[in-house]
Design a protein that fits this description.
single chain, alpha+beta, 2 domains, 10 strands, binds zinc ion
């Protein structure tokens, strides 16, 4: 069985948003820590920002070894934002740490699957039917949308689709769209 995204600790660019912002301004001595929860184990990971000639890095220490994660930035509609570059070269907003691992990598590298979040929480068959139905409808909608990006931006229609996806617990749709936008706009 594949490990589920939801069971991993997630390092989100949003978690260290302020420090990434400072990094874009090339401030010195940026460091901090994040609380890491893996299953029942709670601990902390120290991090600092290191500037390089080609890339800047988030150097994170979880366990014995340090991991250097490349950082890159992009100019999106709502202003600049930073991204992680996984060791597989994918540009991502989130890196994952499954239980019993100590390396932050993207969901592709860790071969993670998305849990049908809402299904597990609400066990009633009625709920199940409702949600499945909604997802199926969404999938059909997705197939009908030909243009998802226009002029470097998500189209209105696709944006609406993403909002519905969020509501239906299909976070993967938005994550993939954001990553795609990054590639197109960089
Ligand atoms: Zn990866």
């Amino acid at each position: 069985m594949r490990t589920l995204v939801e069971s991993c600790f997630i390092l989100d660019t949003k978690t260290i948003k302020k420090d990434l912002h400072l990094a874009r301004e090339r401030k010195s001595n940026i460091e901090g820590y994040i609380n890491v929860t893996q299953g029942n184990v709670k601990s902390a990971a120290d991090y600092r920002i290191e500037y390089g000639s080609e890339y800047d890095y988030l150097v994170i220490q979880y366990g014995e070894e340090e991991q250097k994660i490349r950082i890159t930035e992009s100019e999106l509609t709502y202003g600049p934002r930073s991204w992680f570059i996984c060791s597989c070269d994918r540009v991502v907003g989130k890196l994952y740490l499954p239980i019993n691992t100590n390396e932050f990598r993207c969901r592709h590298c860790h071969k993670l699957a998305y849990e049908l979040t809402t299904l597990n929480k609400k066990s009633k068959i009625g709920q199940y039917g409702y949600i499945t139905n909604r997802r199926l409808k969404l999938m059909n909608t997705r197939e009908k949308i030909r243009t998802i990006i226009y002029n470097g931006k998500l189209t209105e229609r696709f944006n609406r689709f993403l909002k519905l996806s969020d509501k239906a617990g299909l976070a993967s749709n938005r994550e993939e769209a954001e990553e795609l936008l990054f590639v197109i706009n960089s």
